[in-house]
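Q: What does the assembly look like in three dimensions?
Context provided by user:
Components: two
Sequences:
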Amino acid sequence: MTTSLAAETTTASRRWLVPSMLLLVCALFIVSLTVGPVKLSPTDVLAALTGVTASPNRVIVMEIRLPRAILALAIGGILGLSGAAMQGLLRNPLSAPSLFGAPQSAAFAAVATISLGLNDTLSWGLPVAAITGAFLSVFVLIAVAGRNASLLLLILSGLAVSSLAGAGTALAMNLAPNPFAALEIAFWLLGSLEDRSMRHVILALPFIIPAGILLYSQRGAFRALSLGEEAAESLGVNVELLRLIVIIGVALGVGASVAVAGSIAFIGLVAPHLMRPLVNHDPARLLLPAGLAGSALLLSADIAVRIIPATTDIKVGVLTSIIGVPFFLYLILRQRKSLAGGLA
Amino acid sequence: MSAALTLDDVSVSLGGRIIVSGASVTLEKGHLVALIGPNGAGKTTLLKAMAGLHPSQGRIRLDGAEIASLSRRDRARRVAYLPQGHQVHWPLTARDVVALGRFPHGLADPARLTPDHARAIDAAMTRTETTAFADRPIMALSGGERARVMLARVLAVEAPVLLADEPTASLDPRHQITVMNDLKAESRRGALVVAVTHDIALASRLADTIVLMNEGRVVAQGTPDEVLTDAALADVYGVRAARQSIDGEHLVTPWSLA
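A: Here is the predicted structure of the complete assembly.
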């Protein structure tokens, strides 16, 4: 029986997928603590983490590298999960918050409140503003594109939303009181995890964790949505409510991420795509592995920017875009046939 | 036989336009009902209203209970709905698609089946003869195979009322007969099965009851012989039918323009 054998293999690989992704993320997390101007071995790191006495190593690990690694883990995870949730809701592998202008809008809202003097980069108002920006953009996108939106409608509306947010951000920089303020905004928009402290972790996690729980709790509904909105409704899914929950979850996650790390794009597109074949394309089983893959990707990218020799530090958001955009083109290429026929 | 579904003066309007007006029908358990009528007559809209998917005016009662008063989950357990077109957006395996029929009964993950869910899924796949390709992705199946898998999905709900929107559209003759026979068999198990169809020949042979719609109104309901009269076919479809009796079954085939 070849079919049942194949089924068993996939069940086995499915069972190992989450534990092996967890292992990978743990390993990358440790590596992330060892990399930097001061090279530490994993044993040094463990000693610093568990040590009680204040050695220089302990200061480096606890105050500089640990917040950075925690943020990479959390932000990568929520971006991967948001991407998978959005793709489940819209039933399209090419959808991701970053393509629809959510990070750009979050960034605009954050920048606007900073330049108006309402917030500084460490206040609670910043994630709240960024989350509001992200929420509005996703809400407008889904309202404009409507039910059963085609990819063409989504991409066009997303383009409009992100262009508007980009223009708004440019205006804020344009009106910045001095060139240094403009430079600060620009650097922050590039997306980076450098020099983040526990204060940033405390600012982001209270939003990112509920967002993750909210999106993950809807997994059964995403699977039912595979059959289309009407069939899902007939199975008892409240599609209107689901849409609202996904918008809120994505806005909380993306908004909080942008507020502390700037815009880091394409994790939400790449991570679910890498995991999808390993879960038999099931949009429900995809969520957890996609989140873990997002964490692994951002941790790796953040390790890479510290290893790549360059005169100035490369920003991690720049790196994910440089890798993500060709990947997006490759996805379009792969789907060219179906897209050419079915865009409208 | 008792009434499974009663519609009392049901009207549905979409975007300010009245699609169905004043529909009153009584449909009985154990019957296969064919809902027929020209394109745009309001068949799909009425079917969705029966499934509780469209807000409607008037009363739709399911075993005496008003459908609007049921919880989502309760309604989903009592009315299975098969939409037109058999779309599946991800290449799930056939078995995972059928397992979605257990969603209203609380099946969250098809990898963790209770014996009751497994029994319902197996039974539905056996009856539709889809067990052979249970592990194949749905995208890799032919149109006929996919239609049978989608039928198995609604059978797995094990609901007392099954509503199917053009279940035989774009299928080859063999699969048209297979699907209609499966629906007939489901009605013989005691369910009320309502199928929207354009296939008057199959409806005249297999349906217990025919509901004929035109321009948003139910214009006739009854047995095939009562409904499919020359006058009704000429009036509603503008066609004349050829009539034949084969093995004691009456066959009505649209033949020429009236």
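Follow-up: The radius of gyration of chain A is 20 Å.
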